[in-house]
Amino acid sequence: MTEFKEFKLPDVGEGLTEADIVAWHVKPGDRVEVNQVIVEIETAKAVVELPSPWDGTVARLLAEEGQTVDVGVPIIAIDVAGSPDSSERSSVPAPATESAPAAGETAGQPKPQPKRQAVLVGYGVKASSTTRRPRKTATAPAATAPAATAPAATAPAAMALAKPPVRRLAKNLGISLAELAGTGPGGSVTRDDVQRAAGDTRVRSVSAVVEDRARTGLQERIPVRGLRRHMAAAMVSSAFSAPHVTEFLQVDVTETMAALRRVRDLPEYAGVRVSPLLFAARALLAAVARHPLINSSWDGDAEEIVVKHYVNLGIAVAAERGLIVPNIKDADALTLPGLARSLQALTETGRAGKATPADLAGGTITITNVGVFGVDAGTPILTPGETAILAFGQVKDTPWVVDGQLAVRQACTLSLSFDHRIVDGALGSAVLRDVGSMLEDPIRILAWT
Asked: Is 291 in the active site?
């Protein structure tokens, strides 16, 4: 006897509405156990591994890799026959219906809820209430069949693939896309296909030529999904909601580089990669302690400035899937060795795509190391919800005047962007000057903390 349960995409972070299927770790016919990782999904903040909530056999994957799925939509069907907590029965791939009670239930009585074995936030969420149109990769579920006679149903033919402009053209010309053999990528229907079907002999439009070039490899289209889409939306929102100002300061960091070499030899830093960013981060934390308003946020609804008396230090990381900003919780309370280890761990986790939603939430101020890319300076965009971001440029040999004499010193450029609604020029300059002073003479870090 078969007994199917459908696992719905959970809300793995507060407010999640959808996620992309990155990679399945199982296939139909595989045995799975409770808490075994079955799929990787990409949310707006991170790549997350989802475990199976049940023991059983994979009956069918209900979502494809690369597909965007709404929270609450079934993504996998598992045969849990013999499981004592089973309460949902359905034919694959159709979702369970309320039209008839399952065996052992009485009509009119509520169906008992399954025991929860979830380890992630959001298991058992209600079906999504969004009204967005279905994604083009989604396919309609098959009709439900009686479990006793048809344990698996045959899915209907997939809807013809075509871009929205092509669909509009077909509708205007009265052409049924289902009757056309598409010549585009993956069998998709193109504008030319529709025009040929309508007997249209007009000269091909520029858009048709563009499609041809794309088809022959002269163009590439990269879907904007998950983390990259979130990053793009966040940057646009930040750039056009907060009035940015950026100030620059060139600093002689020769003494800091000497101190860095000495620190690397200390036993407390064994096995830790110590970079100039460590001293820049410590200097920024000290500057925050001296100027708390720089570590704040703007609450437009309440018309208040929220000053944070703790520092969750964001570190901009260039991950494979896009820019992310995980943060070190309570960084201001860490010792220098502790800060060094946290910097290394967070950077490695972020680059590997393993940063969790918790790692990415709650930042209060950010530092970005553009120097690792051989860049001197930039105008960094604020992380949404924060008031300032410091960019640390590359350290390089530079002609410098010391005691009236020209010398070669190691120097870098600092760039501080801040929200001008909260931080005026005097405060922004004071923060930047303090960071620069501590990097010119690292003894000041000890004196000011």
From this structure: no
